[in-house]
């Protein structure tokens, strides 16, 4: 796997159960996956020699991020490496201009967008959509990086000019009036088998996913079906091998629009580690190795995932002690820590909490209670503070 982050770390965890060993290309021995895999190549994902070394003798080569340059992937394929997903699929997760063009061709629902050759294109687009504009870099962004929700036309223009001056390709999109964000997570094997997990709702703060509710509460049956079918259809049309996340907007008038694609395990699938029969990490490996795919059924009426994000000021209490107190208070919380240093806003772990049997995901009070526990647990791990003022020593 190219990349030594948390996604590689959790894929390694799943590989063990399949009798496999995951070799990782990591930037440093401290990377989350490098800490746990016995088979690590230290190097950059932009270095052809490092890529060749990590691929040598491997059954397949896959990714924990989308940043490997296209020409290096083509060279690996030419050298006979089984690159999964293949570069002609992966390009749609690497380059938002390519993705937008292709989705338009396929008739998938997308926001209005424009490619940009010169700053005056911003004015033309603004005149066409008559509403707020989002400026996105075509490549390289994640977790809100490379995305600007421009306050006005002047800002959209200034941001675009700055990127163009740096030689960074950008695209413009209309800012969608949305009810919420959804994610359709599917997997596809080279044999052509597809599998979809229930569509989930994600909650974002400052462009970063903070919470996922699985399945999405109170989702219209037609929309649920349409989102799943769209995910499976795109996986097939694009020739995806592995997990595909289709990030969606549910608009205020009740339609779906595709926001972004990712071809790897995805934050909106972390709930599957405890909440589904097959986790996204195992499924990604099954697909990449062309095994039959696993069952995707949820095992609780609702599972809530809350991210543990590094606090603005890391708490004095060490993570070990925070974990101790968390487990004492919430024995049902399933914690996944990534072994990362705590920087503000950085994803350092997540917590999954399953709702009790007999509840319904469309029951607002039932879901709110599970969310409250998951968020409380994640906040405690980030901040060393209980959101409800609990005193861990007094209890
Ligand atoms: N990642 C990749 N794309 C989006 C995300 N969240 C994961 C990958 C990558 C890690 O985040 O696992 O390796 C990088 O995290 P950080 O905190 O070091 O930037």
TrEMBL record:
Catalyzes the ATP-dependent conversion of 5-aminoimidazole ribonucleotide (AIR) and HCO(3)(-) to N5-carboxyaminoimidazole ribonucleotide (N5-CAIR). Catalyzes the ATP-dependent conversion of 5-aminoimidazole ribonucleotide (AIR) and HCO(3)- to N5-carboxyaminoimidazole ribonucleotide (N5-CAIR). It is an enzyme of class 6 (ligase). GO terms for cellular component: cytosol. This is N5-carboxyaminoimidazole ribonucleotide synthase. SUPFAM superfamilies: Glutathione synthetase ATP-binding domain-like, PreATP-grasp domain, Rudiment single hybrid motif. GO terms for molecular function: 5-(carboxyamino)imidazole ribonucleotide synthase activity; ATP binding; metal ion binding; phosphoribosylaminoimidazole carboxylase activity. Residues 100-289 form the ATP-grasp domain. Homodimer. Keywords: ATP-binding, Ligase, Nucleotide-binding, Purine biosynthesis. The gene is purK. ATP binds at residues 96, 136, 173-176, 181, 259-260. PROSITE patterns: ATP_GRASP. Its EC number is 6.3.4.18. It catalyses: 5-amino-1-(5-phospho-beta-D-ribosyl)imidazole + hydrogencarbonate + ATP = 5-carboxyamino-1-(5-phospho-D-ribosyl)imidazole + ADP + phosphate + 2 H(+).
């Amino acid at each position: 796997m190219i990349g030594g982050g948390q996604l590689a770390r959790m894929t390694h965890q799943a590989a063990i159960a399949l009798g496999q060993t995951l070799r990782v290309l990591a930037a440093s021995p401290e990377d989350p996956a490098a800490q746990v895999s016995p088979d690590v190549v230290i190097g950059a994902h932009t270095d052809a020699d490092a890529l060749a070394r990590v691929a040598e003798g491997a059954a397949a080569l896959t990714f924990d991020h989308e940043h490997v340059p296209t020409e290096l992937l083509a060279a690996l394929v030419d050298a006979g490496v089984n690159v999964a997903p293949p570069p002609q699929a992966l390009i749609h997760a690497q380059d938002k201009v390519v993705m937008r063009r292709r989705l338009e061709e396929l008739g998938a629902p997308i926001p209005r967008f424009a490619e940009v050759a010169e700053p005056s294109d911003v004015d033309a687009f603004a005149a066409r959509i008559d509403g707020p504009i989002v400026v996105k870099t075509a490549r390289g962004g994640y977790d809100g990086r490379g995305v600007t929700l421009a306050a006005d036309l002047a800002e959209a223009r200034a941001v675009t000019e700055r990127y163009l001056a740096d030689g960074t390709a950008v695209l413009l999109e209309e800012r969608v009036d949305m009810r919420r964000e959804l994610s359709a997570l599917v997997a596809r094997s080279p044999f052509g088998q597809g599998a979809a997990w229930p569509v989930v709702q994600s909650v974002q703060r400052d462009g970063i996913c903070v919470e996922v509710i699985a399945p999405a509460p109170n989702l219209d049956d037609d929309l649920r079906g349409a989102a799943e079918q769209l995910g499976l259809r795109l996986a097939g049309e694009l020739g995806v091998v592995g997990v595909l996340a289709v990030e969606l907007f549910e608009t205020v008038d009740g339609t779906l629009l595709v926001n972004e694609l990712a071809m790897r395990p995805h934050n909106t699938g972390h709930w599957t580690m405890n909440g589904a029969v097959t986790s996204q990490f195992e499924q990604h490996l099954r697909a990449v190795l062309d095994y039959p795919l696993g069952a995707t059924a949820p095992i609780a009426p609702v599972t809530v995932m809350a991210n543990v994000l590094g606090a603005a000021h890391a708490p004095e209490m060490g993570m070990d002690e925070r974990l101790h107190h968390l487990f004492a208070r919430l024995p049902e919380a399933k914690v996944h820590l990534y072994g990362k240093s705590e920087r503000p806003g950085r994803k350092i772990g997540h917590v999954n909490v399953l709702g009790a049997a007999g509840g319904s995901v469309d029951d607002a009070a039932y879901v709110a209670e599970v969310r409250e526990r998951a968020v409380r647990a994640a906040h405690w791990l980030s901040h060393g503070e209980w959101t409800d003022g609990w005193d861990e020593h007094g209890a």
